[in-house]
Specification:
This protein is mainly alpha-helical. It is built from 20 helices and 4 strands. Strands 1-2 form a two-stranded antiparallel sheet. Strand 1 and strand 2 form a beta hairpin.
Length: 476
């Protein structure tokens, strides 16, 4: 269809697996599973529902007669009642007990929770796989010295692997948030039109215990430990906010990673993967643009902005419910998940194919290392009998001279030669050059990588071996 708008999230960015989770098929099959769970529960609690009716409902759980439902909705303008009608057409014996005592939110809201949990599971799977690839990268380059940057100005060296642990650490925080929110999700249950369970109290002849049991039994049938103890007609829309906040947290982490890669690619130190036939620019054939990292940043901006949607919805619900949440929820929650799905596929693809250029990294590091080595040089000169205060002033003056040579004259950094020429230091150029071993200046970086991977990351990966080994599904 070239004459209608098609969302880029489904056409370009999100995986088929995530798209299915938010598909009509997943939604309406879940509705039918909920109707079956309701009927089974009501039967088990003593209502006159037969086993034959349950079997009939189960026999048509998946073969949804969509055309009947669509035609009915055109007539009655109500999606839930249209599907109740369509299901009843397939299940004439059970027709009278489908949706018994329930309101629309029984299927609508419970399905939303179920779908969000399934989507969080997929996000978690992809997040873990990104962490696994990043951990390999960090371990591989834990001993590769590189310039660190504060304010994007050269600072005390780190290693390429240590920098990767910064990206990993943020994903660890995201995983903690995701697990907390996902494991805390509960079903709405069967609360009725205003959350009072009045219709169920009537069905169960005033038996409060059976009303309470109904919620718990439905939850267990749908794979949940429990339902929210109180609600209006809907579950609290703050739940959607909590879920989308998790997605926004992942987007923040991915955006930071993508920015770092874009800056490193400008420096020609690290590049994202680039296909043999890929075109970087329509005009400048030589260019290798960080297009995937830029796409990560672009989608991440969308997800971070999306957080405002469920916040506004939750804040503006009136009393037991209003319907001004519906259209917004249909957009903001699925699209947040679809965008994060695309982000994580891109993240995995980029990390899996990162190209490191050690010679360029070394060149940049050695151009700045003399400035960073001055404290060590000063200490060596003091040990040889020099005056610390006098030497500090001389190094300051010589550093400014070397800086002018680099910045104003475009020359190489000649700080070591200037120091060697000053008798106050008592050090030869050969002796000074021996101090220019980059690993001397990275502190505990390699060991920190080893400790972080062994103590933090590896236990996570070991606990999730069953979901490792994904490949990214992206349009490159």
């Amino acid at each position: 269809m070239n004459d209608r708008y098609v969302s880029p999230l489904s056409e370009r960015y999100a995986s088929r697996e995530m798209q299915y989770i938010f598909s009509p098929d997943m939604k309406f099959r879940t509705w039918r599973r909920l109707w079956i769970a309701l009927a089974e529960t009501e039967k088990e609690l003593g209502l006159p529902i037969t086993e034959e009716q349950i079997k009939e409902l189960k026999s048509h759980a998946d073969d949804i007669n969509y055309e009947v439902a669509k035609e009915r909705e055109r007539l009655v303008r109500h999606d839930v009642m249209s599907h109740v009608y369509a299901y009843g057409q397939q299940c004439p014996e059970a027709k009278g007990i489908i949706h018994l005592g329930a309101t629309s939110c029984y299927v609508g809201d419970n399905t939303d929770i179920i779908i969000m949990k399934e989507a969080l599971k997929l996000v978690r799977k992809k997040l873990i796989n990104v962490m696994a690839e990043l951990s390999k990268f960090a371990d591989q380059y834990k001993n590769q010295p590189t310039l660190a940057f504060t304010h994007f100005q050269p600072a005390q060296p780190t290693t390429v692997g240590k920098r990767a642990t910064l990206w990993l650490q943020e994903l660890c925080l995201d995983l903690e948030d995701l697990d907390h929110v996902m494991n805390s999700l509960k079903l709405l249950g069967s609360k009725g039109t205003t959350g009072t369970q009045a219709s169920f109290l009537e069905l169960f002849d005033g038996d409060h215990e059976k009303c309470r049991q109904a919620d718990q039994m439905i939850a267990e049938k749908m794979g949940f430990a429990e339902c929210y103890p109180v609600s209006g007609q809907t579950y609290s829309r703050k739940i959607d906010t909590k879920v989308v906040n998790v997605l926004a947290g992942i987007a923040q982490s991915a955006h930071k990673f993508s920015n770092d890669i874009r800056l490193l690619q400008h420096l020609k130190e690290v590049e994202e993967p680039f296909e043999k036939t890929q075109i970087g620019s329509s005009a400048m054939a030589y260019k290798r643009n960080p297009m995937r990292s830029e796409r990560i940043a672009s989608l991440a901006n969308y997800v971070m902005a999306d957080v405002m949607n469920p916040m506004l919805v939750a804040a503006t619900q009136w009393f037991e419910r209003t319907l001004d949440d519906s259209a917004n929820k249909r957009l903001s929650v699925p699209e947040g998940f679809l965008a994060v799905d695309g982000i994580l596929d891109l993240y995995l693809n980029v990390v899996d194919g990162l190209v490191v250029y050690p010679k360029v990294i070394e060149k940049h590091l050695m151009a700045e290392l003399p400035f960073m080595a001055t404290e060590n040089i000063m200490m060596d000169a003091v040990k040889a009998g020099g005056d610390r205060q006098e030497l500090h002033e001389k190094i300051r003056t010589l550093s400014m001279e070397a800086g002018r040579n680099v910045k104003e004259l475009g020359k190489d950094n000649n700080l070591l030669a200037l120091i060697a020429a000053d008798p106050a230091f008592g050090l030869t150029l050969e002796e000074l050059n021996k101090t220019m071993e980059p690993l001397r200046y990275v502190g505990r970086a390699p060991k920190q990588v080893e400790e972080f991977l062994s103590q933090v990351i590896n236990p996570i990966l070991n606990d999730n071996k069953d979901i490792l080994g994904m490949t990214a599904e992206i349009n490159v």
